[in-house]
Every structure is written in C-alpha cells, then in structure tokens.
Amino acid sequence: MSNVQRVLSGIQPTGRFHWGNYFGAIRQYIALQEEYEAYYFIANLHALTTIRDAQTLRQNTLDAAIDLLALGLDPDKAALFVHSDVPEVTELCWILMTGTPMGLLERCHAYKEKKAKGLTADAGLFTYPVLMAADILAYDSNLVPVGEDQVQHIEVTRDLARSFNHHFGETFVMPKAHVLEQAARVPGTDGEKMSKSYGNTIEIFEDPKTMRKKIMRIQTDSRPMEEPKDPDTDHLFQLYSLFADEAQRAEMAETYRRGHFGYGMVKKALADLAEAYFAEARKKRAALAADPNYVRQVLRDGTEKARAKAGEVLERVRRACGTAWWG
Ligand code: ADP
Ligand code: TRP
After folding, report:
1. Cβ < 6 A, ligand 2 pocket
2. 196 is a catalytic site residue
C-alpha cells in the first residue's frame, strides 16, 4: 500500500447548506484538499433514508455539488462525486454486512434514537453505519473529517476493518476520525445549535434580503441597553465572530463589555459582514448554476477517479474473501 494520504468525507444532500455546515464542516474539507488526496461525495444513498421524493433528491444533489464548488472545493485537487455513482461501494457494503454483528448496529445512535421514540426504523437506517464503513474503506481512506455525532460510525468502521483483516488477512487501511473543530459549533437564530431539524438556520446562499430579515430576527435578551454584557456567552456575538477579523471582534467585545449599545446595531454589522464574506462565492455559484454541463463534467471526472480507486480496493477484497472465484 502506498504512502499517499487520503482524506474522505460525505455530506448528505438533505437541504441547502447553512452557516453551521460551512464553518463546522465544509470549510474544513476544503482546507484539507491542500494537503491530502481528497475524495468528497454527496451522500444521496444515505439521504434516501429520509428524503422520499425523487425530484427533491435530484435537486438537492445538484445544489449540493454547485454549493461545494462555489465555496472553493477545487476539482483539480479533490474528487467530487455522487455516492450512488460508485456501485463498488454497495458491493463492498454487502460483503461487510456479512461480518457485522447485529448488536453492533443496535448500539448505533441514529437507529437507537428512532426506536426509543417509538418510531419504526427500516433496514436502511439500521444498516446505515455499514454503508458508511464501505464508503470509507473503499478508498483506503486515512483520514475522515466528521462532526462529533459521526465518531461512533468511524469506530464501527474500524471494528469492521479490523475483524475483516483478522479473518481474511490484511486488506483494509485503518481509517482515523478527524473530529472537526468544536469551536466551530455554530448557534442558530434561537441560540440552540444551528440545524435543519430545528428550523433555526441561515443558509449560505440565502437571498441577501431574506438573510438580513433572518438576522434581524435572531433572538436576543431584553436587558436594558446600558447594561454591560459578556460577549463570550452571547450567541449573536458568536455569529458575528465567525465573519469578523481579529480587530473587529475585539472592538465588538469591548462594546459588549461597556454596555450602551443595541442588539440591532450588532445584527446590522453581522449582516454586512456575512454578505461580504460570501459575496465572491455567490457570484461563482451563479456562474456554475448557469453552466450545468460543466458541473456534470466535474462530477463525471470525480466519479471516474473514485471508481478507479474503489475498484482497486474491491478487487483486493474479492480476492481476500473468495467472491473472486476465478482466481
Ligand atoms: P443538520 O444538523 O442541519 O441536519 P448535518 O447533520 O447534515 O446538519 O451536518 C452536516 C455537517 O455539518 C456535519 O459534519 C455537522 O457536524 C456539521 N454541522 C451541522 N450543523 C452544525 C453547527 N451548528 N455547527 C457546527 N457544525 C455543524
Ligand atoms: N453519515 C454522514 C453524516 O450524516 C455522511 C456520510 C456518509 C459520511 N458516508 C460517510 C461521512 C463517510 C464521512 C465518511 O454527516
């Protein structure tokens, strides 16, 4: 096995990306493309466990690709592709499933939480961590950048790789989780963690007018203006800090501590900074959206690169476990 270090991650196309996705994940994927051989895919097979409308899934998939490219994912540095375009992964998933103890999956949180709520889970949700293991192992990935909530799935992946290697001989590269910076846990408009499921998001490519309206509606407390405030415990300040440079941040922190300011002023400053921050990406996005053939070509090239690597790994797996009956 070679010395090239590979980074891989998947992102579900379950809706338009928000600030939390950007600062918590996407920005960091993009940075890693500089140092690693990078593979990033749009996890439409995973999204099928929640999106049951064909047109929505199609649209979200394309939007996700365009958003990632607009935000700086460079197709010359990273292979960008759609999950279902690499069938090698689903074959690998089956092979891994034959060695996966039920108990291991019963402990996985997505399934466990759904069951605890009394909802019926399907086999897709139950076996989701095995598909994720296949996603990772198929590319000899060394590093997998993920949020805290996905670390359990990387542990499952390592378990499955270890037990396959033990049983059939050294086959898989052992991947490592790269837990994304928790400092980047972005609060939503209500102060809770920003998440699609809480309806408190501000989307990256929101139309500027809507974005401003959402910012103006960010919940704040009703303490008198004069009162000094602690910037470090304030979610509006946290959001402002994402976009501000060092000097702007220090000045705003000072304003908080002095008191005598209105949250409206902070919101306006936040809106101005956020708009400027994504202005370039917004322009790029408009150009990409107007050129779907280019986007399709990028995804085709990414698929080709991904399939070449996954094919090589799968060949190794087939030989190890004996499904390669011819040799
Ligand atoms: P959502 O909670 O909106 O459904 P996802 O679970 O699809 O978002 O998250 C995709 C990626 O974005 C994950 O790596 C996740 O850790 C990251 N992420 C999502 N929300 C936030 C947030 N508020 N702060 C930091 N990172 C986030
Ligand atoms: N399950 C991940 C999420 O919900 C997405 C994902 C699918 C993924 N396959 C992966 C992430 C492989 C890293 C590696 O965020």
Report:
1. 8-10, 12, 43, 46, 132, 135-136, 144, 146, 150
2. yes
Q: Please say whether the dihedral angle defined by the alpha carbons of residues 242, 248, 254 and 258, taken in this order, is positive or negative.
A: negative
User: Which of 12, 27, 195, 239, when mutated, tests ligand 1's pocket best, judged by the most ligand atoms within 8 Å of its CB?
Assistant: 195
Cβ(71)–Cβ(22) below 8 Å: yes
Q: What is the mean pLDDT of residues 321-325?
A: 97
Q: Which residue has the tokens 């700086």?
A: 72
Give pLDDT tens digits for 36-46: 999 999 999 99
pLDDT band for 287, please (50, 70, 90 cuts).
very high
Q: What would the mean pLDDT of 309-316 be, rounded to a whole number?
A: 98
pLDDT digits (tens, 9 = 90+) for 46-69: 999 999 999 999 999 999 999 999
* 4: exposed, middle or buried (Cβ count in 10 Å: 0-12, 13-18, 19+): exposed
Q: Which of 8, 11, 16, 21 has the most ligand 1 atoms within 8 A of CB, as the residue to mutate?
A: 21
Q: Model confidence over 70-124: pLDDT tens digits?
A: 999 999 999 999 999 999 999 999 999 999 999 999 999 989 998 899 888 899 9
Q: What is the torsion angle, in degrees rounded to the nearest 10, for the CA atoms of residue 291, residue 296, residue 297 and residue 303?
A: 160
Is 229 labeled as catalytic in the residue annotation? no
Q: Give me ligand 2 centre to Cα 13, in Å.
A: 11
Compute the distance from residue 10 Cα to the ligand 2 centre, in Å.
4
Residue of 77, 115, 196, 284 with catalytic role: 196
Domains belonging to the chain, first-starting first, are 6-186+291-321 (3.40.50.620), 206-277 (1.10.240.10)
Looking at ligand 2, which atom is closest to the CA of residue 145? 13
Q: Which residues of 104-116 are buried (b: 16+ CB within 10 A; e: fewer)?
A: ebeebebbeebee
Q: What is the 3-state secondary structure (H, E, C) of 108-130?
A: CHHHHHHHHCCCCCCHHHHHHHH
